[in-house]
Specification:
Number of helices of chain A: 0
Oligomer: homodimer
Distance between the termini of chain A: 26 Å
Largest sheet of chain A: 5 strands, antiparallel
Strand order of the largest sheet of chain A: 1-2-8-3-6
């Protein structure tokens, strides 16, 4: 299984694939292709998230004002309930995210 | 922070960097440069491991006989106590691993 190949076509909408669930940790590949969160929408997750961009480019916006540009290899940890949205993903090519969600009990 | 840049020089020995610990999940970047596990050595881990190769090339060997070649993007889950060793990593360039270890309580 390969994170960078056999990409689903995400031009019509972001595609989330669950790769593994181990204990309270969920591992997903997310493919975006120009999508962004709706204006005014914020993710507000109970889980901690580790997210890396493996290909493409994206920009995350946090409700506290921080804006983080992401290119291949860039990663960050998003604390539980730190509100954020996807402000932008590259419309010209797929953006591949590797995301880990670690549940409250993890 | 970037998984693919600012690589430590691993020619003298594999280098493990702990990126984050969230609950019972530990996230590491490992850089190899030609190293392999000693002959006859087996990792026997209590934790489940999700591991992906992000750059370079490697080969894992399992005590049950399976051999898995890994190139960029390839990933697998190694069950707890499934004995394995690194049979080979590319001696010509760094191999970058992203490894997640999920503890027994996760």
């Amino acid at each position: 299984m390969n994170l960078l190949r056999d990409l689903p076509d995400a031009r019509a909408g972001e595609i989330v694939e669950r790769l593994a669930v181990i204990g309270a940790t969920r591992i997903e590949r997310i493919v975006s292709h120009g999508q962004a969160s709706p204006a005014g929408f914020w993710y507000d997750q109970a889980e901690a998230e580790f997210v890396a961009v493996l290909a493409g480019a994206a920009r995350l916006e946090f409700a506290d004002g921080e804006i983080v540009g992401l290119k291949p290899g860039d990663w960050l940890v998003i604390a539980p309930h730190r509100r954020h949205r996807v402000a932008w993903t590259d419309p010209a090519a797929p953006t591949i995210w590797l995301a880990l969600f670690m549940g409250a009990s993890a």
